[in-house]
Amino acid sequence: MNFDIDTRGQTQDVQPGIEEMMDPAPVVIRDNYRGSGKLQGKTALITGGDSGIGRSVAVHFAREGADVAIVYLDEGQDAADTKTMVEAEGKSCLLIQGDIRSEAFCKEAVSRAISEFGKLNILVNNAAEQHPKDNIDDISAGQLGDTFATNIFSFFYFTQAALPHLDHGDTIINTTSVTAYHGSPSLLDYSSTKGAIVAYTRSLAGNLADKGIRVNAVAPGPIWTPLIPSTFDSERVKKFGKDTPFKRPGQPCEVATCYVFLASEDASYMSGQVLHPNGGQVVNG
Q: Which PANTHER family match (predicted)?
């Protein structure tokens, strides 16, 4: 399948962006992707599951047999579209709207998922925000606090709320980024949180090993999601992903299969690891 696209330099005014406004639309799942029951009978909670990578993960999980709860901020139509896609796979989808910077909301979200499905087997900490600034002096205390609250504090909140419901063989998957490994001069706070996620993943994996709960991460490179046109100006969007060895941005469907693997028994001997769907960038991590 050819994933080459022209991003057309499109932009959006508000983060985290709206997928239904994107042209070309991100590829959620390959037409020839065949589920094989890898997650049959499982239940997953995915933050940022309304669009982008999170939407693709939700649909892949459903095709593999899992029911899904997705957490989103305020992108109601995107969330509804994802729910329709999951239900088209014959699985249930619970929509949970709220601000993951709030510890109380994170606890409520897990509680609602448990109430709806009766169990939780897979937690995907995925939602993030980013705000480019050319100079460190331009990063306000408010921006710094919001970025860390969304991108790493929420991972702690959701994990703390989910752990009483996770059992041997269950799994946590965290979304980090290639920027954790090679940095990003204009995304100082964002890349710092992504580095923190790598350390968090490795540390939590060791902490939960005795319980048989696996913790891994995925570090995407430049992926065509709503966060891109809602973050960068037209010129950067035009060039997005062109500096990778593959000379193009990736599609969400090229990332979501990493989450399927890590969530399934295929990865039963893996914990504390990071997968790198990044267009051929070698990061040695």
A: NADPH-DEPENDENT ALDEHYDE REDUCTASE 1, CHLOROPLASTIC, NADPH-DEPENDENT ALDEHYDE REDUCTASE-LIKE PROTEIN, CHLOROPLASTIC-RELATED
